[in-house]
Amino acid sequence: MSTIILESKDFQQKLKNQISLAQQTGALQSIPTAYEIISNGGIDFVVRIVKNLRRKQEAQQKEALKPNFNPFLPYETDLFVTDISDTHLCLLNKYNVIDEHLLIVTREFEEQEKLLNFADFLGLWAILAHFDGLAFYNAGKIAGASVKHKHLQLIPLELAPGVPGIPIEGVMNNVEWKQSIGIIKAFPFSHVYTKLEYQESKTIAELAQISLNSYQKLLTALNLTEGAPYNLLMRREWMLIIPRSQPGYQEIGINSLGFAGAMLVRHQEELDFVKEYQPLNILRAVAITK
Question: Is residue 269 packed enough to be buried (19+ CB in 10 Å), middle (13-18) or exposed (0-12)?
Answer without folding.
Answer: exposed
